[in-house]
Amino acid sequence: MKTKVPVMEDVSNDGMRDYHRRNKRKAALIVTGTALVLIAIVISTMMIGKYPLSFGEIVGMLTGTHYDDTDNYILFETRIPRILCCVLVGAALSCAGLVMQSLFKNPMASPSVLGISNGAAFGASLAIAFGVGSVFGGFAVPIMAFLFCCLTMVLVYVLGRTKYGVSPVTLLLAGVAVGAFFNGMVSLMQYVVEDDVLASIVYWTMGSFNGCGWTSFFTAAIPISIGLIMMMLCRRELNLISAGETQAANLGVDVKTIRIVLIVSTSLVVGGSVAISGVIGFVGLIVPHIFRMLAGSDHKLLMPLCILGGGAFMLVMDTISRMAFETALPVGVLTSLLGAPFFVYVMRKRSRDVWE
Amino acid sequence: MDLTVNNVRYSYGSKEVVKGVSFGADRGEVVGILGQNGCGKTTLLRCINGSNKPTSGNVVLDGEDTSEMSKKAIARKMAFVTQTNNVTFPFTVFETVMMGRYAHQTFVSEESDHDVDIVTQAMADAGILDFRDRRINELSGGERRRVFIAQALAQEPEILLLDEPTLHLDINHQFDLLELVRRLSREKNILILIVTHDIILASRYCDKIVFMEKGEIRDIGETELVATAENYRRIFKIITEISQDPRFGLDVKLVERDHGE
């Protein structure tokens, strides 16, 4: 540890500065690449549908040189709002999963795995079925979803906590218990409500973008943007907290305040998502994991990647569920079919970290 | 005094672990805190850096009560290398050491060349320059320890708290670390508090020693004055022979356990 520095090409500060710049360039490249993928997918999904549109037509409509009543209606009133909703919800759920994994130091965490989505679903169901929270007007559903999100997160956190801190196992078990409880509550509600309300709740608990238009987009855009900005501002604290809370505090992080900020921001984005698209599971587990494998653990990089890549992932999933079958399948069914095996894969691969 | 600990008490539930500890220390000193397991050494360090809020008493840093300072303000002056660090996500060594710069950065600032230079120096001091791309979860216990020492150095601390710093280190790295500690105190005028069980190394490298027993200070002072056979027998129940060796100073020879009385 004395001055006996190993002789290498880059022991000088310049070498390390170059190394740091190289890393930054690499990061910028990955983000740009992911952004390009998202743009390509957005353009393709504008074209794909029961009523196909050509690339030329889309460019024409976007620049105002092509006009056709049906084409324009399909593009501007159906596809674009739906695409925006998909991107918004994909980004929100992915970032929520990322933040929860880092906050709870648990690679298995995600809104659906820890029952947070179920809590939000119950809150939103209350608003849909009984008009609870009607004082909030048009925002009753997202606000109820947000409030129950906060409640569920705190509940899972408190229940999962032991005197030795939050262990991954107790946290997962607490999530299972709380999620099952709220699931049961939603089922109970389905049992007592009228048939027409029942249909809407059932369809909505499966998770889908089928009903998403401009209203849905504006409803969700506000809470999700606020939540994502809060998370972005905490990117550095997320790095330190995910590396260990005690050490983060020693390095100067006000852990208690940041924890509250992160719980509120996660609830905002999950509440906003659940309010318009229902419960779409496992996105928050799959997307952050792909990027952790690709880009490491730094949230300065992971956060933009989850926003862009989460949006792209959700768009692909939605398009498949929309096109692959005779009738449009709820996208939540598809992500669950994909997510459950992925969960098992992560569990096997990361078993050492999870169970130790 | 740059750092003053005033009658600090701390309890876990009803069990009082630190029972009214007072002492002061200045920059440029290496102070060893010695005592048996469970004597409250680590808890005392946690009280000093504000992780534990003393039940009564206070810690004053350059005239300012640490309980009134923000976490960030404390971290700009004081670094703490803890005994264990658990690791969940595979950050690289460079990223981990860079975390030491947190207290010097703002909400929006990017990592500057200045930050990179300080991290480079810290990694060189800890002898881990060639680890920069390795994942922290793939390192051995001793290597990981040196990464966290580099992280603490990247904080540019004026006061460095080390909890069992030589734990998991092989004998060469123990010497390297303690020589680094001495160099930092002399060249950069840092105050270093070391909690340790290692009587021999402490006697050699510390300017001052604080002996703790059952949450209280039993003796404190210049190493030559307090590292006495009498103190080791009284506090550790160990028979020692103390002599001056012209090559390295104070030499403590462990003879046997004291079975007397």
Structure explained in plain terms:
- The complex is a heterodimer of chains A (356) and B (261).
- By secondary structure, chain A is an all-alpha fold.
- Chain A has two domains: 12-77, no CATH class; 96-279, Orthogonal Bundle (ABC transporter involved in vitamin B12 uptake, BtuC), CATH 1.10.3470.
- Chain A is built from 15 helices and two strands.
- Chain A has helices at 13-47, 55-63, 69-103, 116-130, 140-160, 168-192, 195-206, 214-233, 235-242, 245-250, 255-277, 283-295, 299-323, 331-349, 351-355; strands at 161-162, 165-166.
- The longest helix of chain A has 35 residues, at 13-47.
- Chain A is globular.
- Chain A starts with 12 loop residues before the first helix and ends with a helix.
- In chain A, 48% of the residues are buried.
- Chain B is built from nine helices and twelve strands.
- Chain B has helices spanning 41-48, 71-77, 93-98, 113-125, 141-154, 171-187, 199-205, 223-226, 229-236, and strands at 3-12, 15-25, 30-34, 56-61, 64-65, 78-81, 159-163, 191-196, 208-213, 216-222, 238-245, 249-257.
- Helix content of chain B is 32%, strand content 30%.
- Chain B has a single domain (3-257), classed as 3-Layer(aba) Sandwich (Rossmann fold).
- In chain B, helix 4 (113-125) crosses helix 5.
- In chain B, the strands form three sheets. In chain B, strands 6-7-8-3-9-10 form a six-stranded mixed beta sheet, with helices on both faces. Chain B has a four-stranded antiparallel beta sheet with strand order 2-1-4-5, with helices on one face. Chain B has a two-stranded antiparallel ribbon with strand order 11-12.
- Chain B is α/β, with parallel strands linked by helices.
- The interface between A and B is large, with 38 and 54 residues.
Number of strands of chain A: 2
Q: So what's the CATH class of chain B?
A: Alpha Beta
The overall number of domains of chain A is 2
Q: What's the β-strand tally of chain B?
A: 12
Number of helices of chain B: 9
The major pleated sheet of chain A works out as: 2 strands, antiparallel
Instruction: Strand order, main sheet of chain B: write it out.
Output: 6-7-8-3-9-10
CATH class of the largest domain in chain A reads Mainly Alpha
The SS-based structural class of chain A is mainly alpha
Outline of chain A: globular
> What is the end-to-end distance of chain A?
31 Å
Look up the CATH topology of the largest domain in chain A.
Answer: ABC transporter involved in vitamin B12 uptake, BtuC
Overall morphology of chain B: globular
Could you give the distance between the termini of chain B?
41 Å
Identify the most extensive interface between protein chains.
A-B, 38 and 54 residues
- Oligomerization: heterodimer
Q: In CATH terms, what is the architecture of the largest domain in chain A?
A: Orthogonal Bundle
Biggest sheet statistics of chain B: 6 strands, mixed
Q: Mean pLDDT of chain B, as a whole number?
A: 91
Indicate the proportion of strand residues of chain A: under 5%
